[in-house]
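Field: sequence (string)
Field: structure_tokens (string)

Example rows 1 and 2, in order.
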Amino acid sequence: MRHLRFLRYMDEVARTGSIRGAAARLNVTPSALNRRIMDLEEELGLKLLERRARGVSLTAAGEVFVSYIREQLNDADRMRSQLEDLRGLRRGTVRIACSQALAHDFLPQQIAAFRLRYPLMTFEVMVADHEHAITLLVDYEVDLVLVFRPAFIGRLRPLMTLPQRLVALMPADHPLARKPKLRLADCTGYPLALSELSTGGRQMIEERLSRSGLRFSVAAEANSFELLRGLVVHCGMISFQIEIGAEPEAMPPGVVVRPVDERDLAGADLVLGQLRGRNLPLAGAQFAEHLSGVLRQRAEALAS
């Protein structure tokens, strides 16, 4: 399968935007790599790269060719996974991007459960906001995404969705902890620790605030949900997460979880998805099936 080697070389040039940079990463000489690309351009009768003083960029023909390359490499990876499965090795790598809310408890739990069945499986996990996760999927950096409130794009194929509400995290002795359910207006006047604006939950809150005229006292913003939990524990602040990322039994001692009233925030979907029209490697397909089953059970429990 030597022809795949050059496909990977061309893919690396597209990702780095530099023949010299790609050559260094691939341990080949820049002149040899450039010669191979020029030979291919001559064979196709089209320029694939715009060569500039500082790096290269893809032409329209190059964009088409790189898309083809990534489909071929994906098919090759899937074929290898299937061959390994036929040998009984059950090897493979699952590449997935997830929202931060899934990274602390839910996804590690599901990886552990999956590896009980397939102990030779490995994982490459990217924790990313919903927009970045979709970019990783479209660029073939990951095979699956599990993200809250992703933007609609035609290339995303949802495999399973789970409705999610926002909940508030606060110290057990906080004055609002006595309430079974919170209105956003209840939280005004108290210091809040909020996730950055790129997260789906924060965007929901900001959209509601802009319509209601409420103003929050934001004492801290962070791109780490673990840090936000720490601010609740050590600073007595209120923070917000989606339900699956803030299950009461997983909270640090002294932290309670209260739902946000549906009149303020109606909720949105957690989406497990893949790239439309793409054949997943066997490892990714098996893990997608596992996650779909778990999410389906949770959805049925919510509906009952």
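Row 2 begins here:
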Amino acid sequence: MTKVLTQYQLFVTKRENLEKKIEEFYNDTKQTACVIQYALAIMVKNAFSTQDFSYFAKELVCSLFLTSSVEELNSVRNLCVYFEDYFTEDEWVQVIDRLFENQIEYAQLTEQTRLRIEKLRPILNVGEQAGEKKLTLKALFKDESSKGHNWSLSNVVALRSSQEHRALLNILGELTIFQKEGTRRFTEVVWLDFSIDERFRDFDIRNEEDPNYQPDKLERGKTTQQKQKTDEKKPSEKGHSQQKKDFSQMTDSSFSEDSTDKGQPKKKDLSLSGTKLKRTKEEILEEKRRIRGKGKNPDLFGEQAKKREEKKKEQELRKKLVGNNKPKKNRKRKKRK
């Protein structure tokens, strides 16, 4: 049994092989509506592709609209307007007569579709196209449950406006052949990118500044609250560097300021430190004297100091005198020996 053609086969397979596969599929299954939807999907591909897929499977499509039963065509009769260029004027009149009760019913049921594709009709069967560079089309679609899924198409050109690109891709939303687990895909396009080495966004209906902007139906009427986050304030680099500088000055206070070599430890001023130590000792001695001399006459210390000085002078004089007599004693000792 012939399987249904996959999404990959439809958008990747070359024209000759794809037409053969669709004909084989119809001969085995006789699924008229499915074949017409296949042809419309290829028509969308042709509008972007550098290859020629114009008037895809024309003979098969024309025969289906002209010879298949009305019951088989009932589910896709609204799609017939996309294939008007496949037929001559007389054939097109026959198609309308077979699918609709009269011209009024045709006009009413297809009015919106005809208005939407009026400018797109020449693009759908444009044939081979050449651009400055071959691009890759990447798009995000919503499925029937409003979940997003990606879709891509290689070897395309971006020759139209973003409004036309969006209208072309939304044609896929009219098809029921693309499903996953019973959920219809491609119900609405959200954004479209063209990429080479770098990509640029063509449109995004979620962006309020985009001319194609359209608010999400699910989120209409809902109020949105903005979450406020408080961040801990960090010290500025300037303040941090100033603190670091002050700290370095404190740690380097023990080094002299006259050091010629940068990075070398500064020498201590020993003269100042020695004076400080000497003064401290004198203060200690004076404090001890004050403690010892409590309740005594302070003049007593002055008299004692004078006596000590006088004794020192007397001792010096004696030493001098003794020093002069020493040679005589030495001589006498030598003689005795």
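free_text_note (row 2): The radius of gyration is 54 Å.
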